[in-house]
Design goal:
single chain, about 775 residues, Alpha-Beta Plaits, 7-stranded antiparallel beta sheet, 7-stranded parallel beta sheet, 23 helices, Peptidase_S8/S53_dom_sf, signal
């Protein structure tokens, strides 16, 4: 999701990042040219600047108002304000507000965002007064950003940071209760609640400060003795996940969904075999000469399409039959070649044959909606046992956004997105373009592709918008995609397989996607929810924590939570996506020391164009690439989708074509791309490694060392542009001479599950033999 995230992404220029110490890895994300006049928050004694968005205001609703409202509060407020605007006398010199329709966008459960159409201070004050008159409105809050949108960044990274009157206050262990009370009284603070699954960490609010003054309160608290950190409990929203499935469609090539179903890239496959249900009898898993004697315990009908697990069949069919890739796979033509060699897969099939396939390992997935009842996921779902701190109703993970035991989409959330999804099917071209005229997707293709769009028909633009909406709605289930990459285990011969199919995954929902007509789809999360989600995963015994999200908002509390967890749990492994902006910087939290930061490569062995890179990139894994003209969606990562939920398809006929979903599956399976999916691939390989070490003899440092040492640059390719950039940055001193071009763009290389599993087994055997000698 990422999408996000989201996220989920640290410098505004190419600066080296070194992970020699936990703090040093993150202080490098701070721009050095700061002035005391700028708004900022504190991160390990560094000032992180914030830019106030003066044209946007956030609204917080009273806690009990939602349960009494028949309409969602943001819609009720929108109606009430627009009624009031018509009765209000505005400044006659500026009629923009009087003639505007105010739109309110939901932002999580208790917040909403409103763009103020007038720049006149008097009109802004009028809006503030109107808001305060609403009985269900608690307060108005400032909105910040970390950086401006940039045309160099794919999709234009836009973020909104809401500052509620909430501060995460982390006391030193030595601070007594009386000292804590003294600090709270002296600074006029009230405790909202202690953070769950965290020690000495409280959510507090100021009884005297509001708005931007909350930053000053947090910064003063940070400097006090007895306090480890004081971080504003930011609500972060951005429109770029660490999954790039939501990136704008390339209008210079034919839309995959524009072609009819029978003529799609998948048509030879589906015409001949009648769709997914009838594929099983005709597809046989292709093997290469070096692997003919290897028994694959997880052979399924869709495995040949999962090139990240075995790239040889796909590579052969692409080279020999580029126009009929799926026909080649279905007829098993690749199996007749004697010269096939694996290239860009992760070597997982031979690893399965000699390992426990991740049995006994728990991988926590911190993400968006996780539809754990998917038929390929239900068998790998972790069940929480009898623990002392069990939450009410807890069985299969926890939703820290909605504060409930189910990470799946609920009926109320479904009712929000169903009409949008249905519009993409049921509205005419004119109706669709009129209703979504303010969607940023249309604004982007109009501004970025001015020359091209003049040659497009209305029908083509409408089709692009339809595909965009469908892809965005499908990306609500980002966590379902990630979970499938790690641990999918189909019940029969149909379905997809995860990297560690016998591992268990623990769903932890820490982010949410919202939609508004003017802002489009955006992923949001709150710092406190991330911290509690990490603590929860640790408390439930996770061996690995996957974080396919990122931001440019480093916080001391999240960093400290991860660093402390690493110290207290020497075998716990964190894996994170590095980001999807295609630039030389590593996202947060991937840049934290000993967190495995993962970049993405495509099926040809090139760095995926979206994947971030840099001195401290750890490794790379297949992230998918659906934009290549020759293969289309087949170049993505095929995984479990969540769009198949029944409520989403009410009144919609069977789709006539694909938009990154497998035909006829209604979103049950989907091709995706992004570092969000390279990260869980590594998490899956670590699960395979840990499955061979049930006593957890190997430490995190040893696991990381083995993972890096068994990775390689075999099959990977640098472009001329990448080589030139590396040379330029070395000359300017921004890349150490000890960092090769391969390391700068690929880290230690492409992971190798087979080699990593064998090395773990050999190392454990060696230790056993040495122990017996004594």
């Amino acid at each position: 999701m990422k999408s996000f995230l989201s996220g989920i992404l640290l410098l505004t220029c190419f600066l080296p990042i070194f992970k020699t110490q936990p703090l040093k890895a993150q202080t490098s994300v701070v721009t050095n040219s700061q002035t005391n006049k700028k708004l900022f928050y504190t991160y390990y004694n560094k000032k992180i600047p914030l830019i106030l968005q003066e044209d946007i205001v956030a609204i917080s609703f009273k806690p009990k108002a939602q349960s009494r409202a028949s309409l969602p509060l943001h819609l009720k407020l929108q109606l009430d304000l627009n009624r009031s605007v018509g009765k209000t006398n505005f400044n006659q010199a500026n009629l923009s507000l009087e003639n505007s329709s105010l739109r309110i966008k939901p932002f999580g459960k208790r917040y909403a965002l409103m763009r103020i159409p007038s720049t006149n201070p008097r009109d802004s004050s009028t809006i503030q007064r109107l808001l305060k008159k609403q009985a269900y409105v608690e307060n108005t809050l400032p909105v910040f950003s970390r950086q401006k949108s940039s045309p160099q960044i794919s999709g234009g990274y836009r973020e909104k940071i809401i500052l509620p009157n909430e501060i995460i206050l982390h006391f030193d262990e030595q601070t007594s209760n009386s000292q804590k009370q003294k600090i709270l009284r002296r600074h006029n603070l009230s405790i909202i609640r202690p953070l769950r699954f965290s020690s000495n960490r409280y959510l507090v609010k100021s009884l005297s400060a509001s708005g931007v003054q909350v930053l000053d309160v947090a910064n003063r608290l940070y400097r006090l003795d007895g306090i480890k950190s004081a971080t504003p409990n930011f609500n972060l929203s951005h429109n770029l996940k660490t999954s790039t499935n939501v990136k704008p469609i390339d209008l210079s090539i034919p839309f995959f969904s524009k072609t009819s179903f029978d003529n799609s890239l998948l048509s030879p496959f589906t015409r001949k075999f009648g769709g997914i249900s009838n594929i099983t009898q005709r597809i046989r898993l292709g093997t290469i000469r070096d692997q003919r004697k290897i028994k694959n315990p997880f052979q399924t009908s869709l495995l040949p399409l999962q090139w990240h697990l075995n790239s040889a069949p796909f590579s052969y069919c692409l080279n020999q039959f580029p126009s009929f890739i799926n026909r080649c796979l279905s007829d098993n033509l690749f199996n007749r070649s004697r010269s096939l060699k694996p290239s860009t897969d992760i070597g997982v099939i031979p690893a399965w044959s000699k390992s426990k396939a991740g049995k006994g390992v728990v991988v926590a997935v911190l993400d968006d909606f996780i539809q754990w009842n998917h038929p390929d996921l239900i068998g790998s779902l972790y069940r929480v046992g009898n623990v002392q701190d069990k939450l009410r109703g807890e069985k299969h993970g926890w939703d820290f956004v909605g504060n409930d035991p189910d990470t799946r989409i609920n009926p109320r959330e479904l009712s929000t997105f169903r009409p949008i999804f249905q519009d993409s099917f049921l509205l005419s071209d004119d109706e669709l373009l009129e209703k979504y005229a303010d969607d940023p997707f249309l604004a982007e293709i109009s501004s970025v592709r001015k020359e091209l769009i003049r040659h497009l028909t209305k029908a083509q633009i409408a089709q692009a918008l339809r595909d965009h909406i469908r892809k965005e709605v499908s990306s609500l289930f980002h966590g379902t995609w990630v979970s499938g990459v790690i641990a999918a285990r189909p019940q029969g011969k149909n379905g997809v397989v995860g990297v560690a199919p016998k591992a268990k995954f623990l769903p932890v929902k820490v982010s949410k996607t919202v939609y508004s007509p003017t802002s489009g789809f955006e992923t949001m999360y709150q710092v406190s929810q991330i911290i509690e989600g990490i603590g929860y995963a640790i408390a439930r015994g996770a061996d690995i924590i996957n974080m396919s999200y990122g931001s440019y908002l480093p916080t001391a509390d999240e960093t400290d939570t991860i660093v402390r967890a690493q110290k207290e749990n020497p075998d716990l492994v964190f894996v994170a996506a590095v980001g999807n902006e295609g630039i030389g910087r590593i996202g947060f939290p991937a840049a934290i020391e000993d967190v495995i930061g993962v970049g993405g490569v495509n099926f040809k062995g090139n760095r995926a164009s979206y994947s971030n890179f840099g001195n401290e990139l750890t490794v790379v894994a297949p992230g998918g690439d659906v934009s290549t003209r020759s293969v289309g969606v087949n170049g993505g990562i095929l995984t479990t989708g969540g769009q198949w939920v029944n409520g989403l398809w009410q009144g919609i006929d069977k789709p006539r074509y694909s938009w990154n979903t497998l035909p006829l599956s209604r979103g049950k399976y989907i091709w995706v791309e992004g570092t969000s999916f390279a990260s869980p691939m590594v998490a899956g390989v670590v699960a395979l490694m840990k499955g061979e070490d049930p006593q957890r003899v190997l430490s995190r440092k040893e696991i990381l060392e083995i993972l890096k040492r068994t990775s390689s640059y075999r099959g990977l390719k640098l472009s001329n542009a990448e080589k030139k950039l590396h040379q330029l940055l070395m000359k300017r001193g921004r890349v150490p001479r000890s960092v090769s071009a391969e390391k700068y763009f690929f880290g230690s290389g492409l992971i190798n599950a087979d080699a990593a599993v064998r090395e773990v087994q050999n190392r454990l055997v060696g230790r056993t033999q040495r122990t017996r000698r004594y």
